[in-house]
Amino acid sequence: MQENITFEIPIIDFGLLKTRDEATKSNFLKAITEVGFFFLKNHDVPKELTDRLELVSRNSYKTTFEERMKLKDFRGKMEVSGSIFHEKPFQNSPDDESIKLDEKEIDSTFFDYLTKISNIGVFLLKFCEEVFDLPNGRLLGNFEPKKAIIDAVMLEENPTEEFEFECHRDNRLMTILKQDRTGGVEIKYKDNWYPVLEDPKKEFLGVNIGNIMNNLSDGKAKAVYHRVRSIQNQTRFMWPVFLTPNFRPRKTAVKFLRFTHRGWYDFDTVDDETDFLL
Ligand SMILES: [Fe+2]
């Protein structure tokens, strides 16, 4: 049972963090050592860009199979893979013929968003090396911004289980998450679960500390347990960006995935295990 304690997910002002503001720095330290999750505000990712990200993601799922396949053949700045290239990427695919995809725009939208988030990631990892007094490159050396991965995850409208993703910790350095307005993500803090509800007006990003970060910081950064609760009658999206070692010699990547309770909807067979959304 949930105890009646007051806990609010820490909110870090990225602008102030960059200036090494003392109060922000101490909130940040508390957030990563005690909670393992925080919101980032004032992060400089324009709303126009996140709106575009949402629109192209939704359209890519809603259109026809033939239209989606255009993305597979397109050679742009991103590598696209995942369940979106199945004939039926989700249960009630509308196959809307009126939706035409602009491959160039999709490519540049994901690339621009990922570049912004990767830059935030680079700063946060560097900053953590600093505050934890770690050797130079201990964290940053395990992240290659030019090969970052973003998933555009569409969750089913009528899930059959209580959770889309059960309780787990990410096998990453960090995950920088954007959700749409529906929510569903919950984090565990001191044996209680708390919903991660973003205020759409503030356009917060969620930053989630993973196992690799915990190990490389000699246990100082706390990896947060989290889960995603199912919500009925809502098709919803989330866009996690994974800060993780990526040994594949490839470009930045976007994966359009869809989760079903029968398991991942046929992960790209050529993909290696570093691409799991965990
Ligand atoms: Fe996760």
Account of the protein in words:
Pfam families: 2OG-FeII_Oxy (PF03171), DIOX_N (PF14226). This is Oidioi.mRNA.OKI2018_I69.chr1.g570.t1.cds. By secondary structure, the chain is of the alpha+beta class. It has a domain at 45-92 and 119-196 and 210-263: Jelly Rolls. It is built from 6 helices and 13 strands. It has helices spanning 14-18, 22-35, 47-62, 65-73, 103-131, 211-216; strands spanning 11-13, 37-41, 79-82, 149-155, 163-168, 174-179, 185-189, 192-195, 205-209, 226-229, 236-243, 253-260, 263-264. The strands form 2 sheets. Strands 1, 2, 3, 4, 6, 9, 11, 12 and 13 form a 9-stranded mixed sheet that branches. A 4-stranded antiparallel sheet has the order 5-10-7-8, with no helix packed on it. The protein is globular and about 55 Å long. Fe (ii) ion is lined by residues 168, 170, 226, 278.
Annotation keywords:
Jelly Rolls; 6 helices; alpha+beta; 9-stranded mixed sheet; 278 residues; 24% strand; 4-stranded antiparallel sheet; disordered C terminus; binds fe (ii) ion; single chain
Quick recap:
The protein is of the alpha+beta class. The protein has helices spanning 14-18, 22-35, 47-62, 65-73, 103-131, 211-216; strands at 11-13, 37-41, 79-82, 149-155, 163-168, 174-179, 185-189, 192-195, 205-209, 226-229, 236-243, 253-260, 263-264. The strands form 2 sheets. Strands 1, 2, 3, 4, 6, 9, 11, 12 and 13 form a 9-stranded mixed sheet that branches.
